[in-house]
Amino acid sequence: MKRCPNCQQSYSDELVFCLNDGTVLENSAVSYSGDTPTVIVPLKVSEKSNKSLFAVIGVMALAIIGLVAVVFFLIKSGGNIEETKTPNVAQNQPNEKSSLTKEAVQELINRWEKAQDTPNFDDYKACYATAFSGIKRTKTGSENEMNYAEWLKDREKMAKNIIDVRVENLNISIEGDTATAQFTQHWKSANYQDTGQKTMRIKMFDGAAKIVYEDLKFVYSN
After folding, report:
1. Angle, vertex CA 48, rays to CA 44 and CA 49, nearest 5
2. In whole angstroms, how far apart are CA 175 and each of 181, 203, 218?
3. pTM here?
4. Potential cystine with 127: which of 100, 112, 122, 131 (Cβ 3.0-4.6 Å)?
5. Which of 180, 189, 59 is nearest to 117 (CA)?
6. For the segment 123-154, what is each residue's pLDDT rounded down to a tens digit?
7. Rama region for 142: left / alpha / beta (φ>0; ψ in -120 to 50; rest)
């Protein structure tokens, strides 16, 4: 038998807490009688209590498992987000080094020449990178350095009068991510023509070769 140390109520061994005040019961070697009745708890009441206790433990276990799963998911998601940042940054950079070959440079020079002979200014414009800078020289010996917008604005005016542009003695060399094309340019419009030695520097941007520098030297009239 068990008894309550407070109210001295006696209970069967299956009960853990006092039904009067909730105090933890103690084992007792003495059987009480008289004013202290013995409460006999049937076995089915103890089984019900055990089932309730197991239910509480089960709910707590599920809650802990759920919390662990959430923490694990957040840690894993955070790692994936961090891992995807580096490729995004790399994709935003100009791809200047891929497939820079003499064949790609040759094809660009051919398109550049044909765009002026046609004439097709949109195709001509597509041959240049926005990071372009060029030197315009005149037969009087003056030099004028131009950026991308200035160069195209100047060339658009001239494109309307071009009759023929011809490339001769093309020489291509590649060093690192930059190709240098040197050739003799024959240029002819309705009222003017000249010949000069042209130098271009070319890089790759998003898989396409584009001109980043242009200079015409040793110009002489025909």
Report:
1. 120
2. 12, 11, 25
3. 0.56
4. 112
5. 189
6. 999 999 999 999 988 767 788 999 999 999 99
7. beta
